[in-house]
Amino acid sequence: MIDIQHLVYGLGAIVVVGVVAALTMHLWHRYQAQSIVAAEQQIKVVISQKAAVAALAVESSAAQAEEEELTQSGVIAINVLLGRLIDNGDYTNAKLWAENALRSNSNQVSVAIKLVEAHHCAGDRREFFSSLSEFVLPQRDNIDAQTWAHLETMLADFAPGAESRSQQANA
């Protein structure tokens, strides 16, 4: 027969193992959460650094000549910055950067589309259509089919009754 003392020791050991396992899992989840926060902060720092570099580039080019066009690499850098800002939900800064770039480079359809996308993501219906008509539609001949499809998807989200259709689809 099992002695009561051994039974108590066995149950105590089980409890200790359970507590250690729970503590280990808690600490692991806490470590993962801290790692995610650190990674997000690192991404924000990188974006801020790139934004600062882009700001210096814009300021220096503005000082050289106000009407000077962005180089192709400058357009690519602005598009990458805008994409990251939009992906991180920073629509205000994305719109600001795009509008600043379009002031002196209104013919950059890729930047104009990023501006329209930022307005779309932020839910700014009026600004979406304003930017679409001011910057994108005048350059419609320079837009490929895939980009048109993306624009049509964004347009459909602002169509009358789009909210009620999406609510019916979710029901």
Structure write-up:
- The protein has a domain at 89-158.
- Helix 1 (4-64) runs antiparallel to helix 2 (72-87), helix 2 runs parallel beside helix 4 and helix 3 (91-104) runs antiparallel to helix 4 (109-122).
- The protein is 81% helix and 0% strand.
- It has helices spanning 4-64, 72-87, 91-104, 109-122, 125-136, 145-157, 162-170.
- The N and C termini lie far apart (62 Å).
- It has 171 residues and is mainly α.
Summarize the structure.
This protein is mainly α and 171 residues long. Helix content is 81%, strand content 0%. The chain has a domain at 89-158.
The largest sheet is: none
Q: Termini distance?
A: 62 Å
Report the mean per-residue pLDDT as an integer: 83
Number of DSSP helical runs? 7
Percent of residues in beta strands? under 5%
| Total number of beta strands | 0
Unreliable stretches (pLDDT < 50, length at least 5) are: 164-171
Instruction: Report Rg.
Output: 27 Å
- The percent range for helix content is over 70%
Structural class, from helix and strand content?
A: mainly alpha
Keywords:
171 residues; mainly alpha; disordered C terminus
Which helices and strands appear, and what pairs or packs with what?
Elements: H1 4-64, H2 72-87, H3 91-104, H4 109-122, H5 125-136, H6 145-157, H7 162-170
Helix pairs in contact: 1-2, 2-3, 2-4, 3-4, 4-5
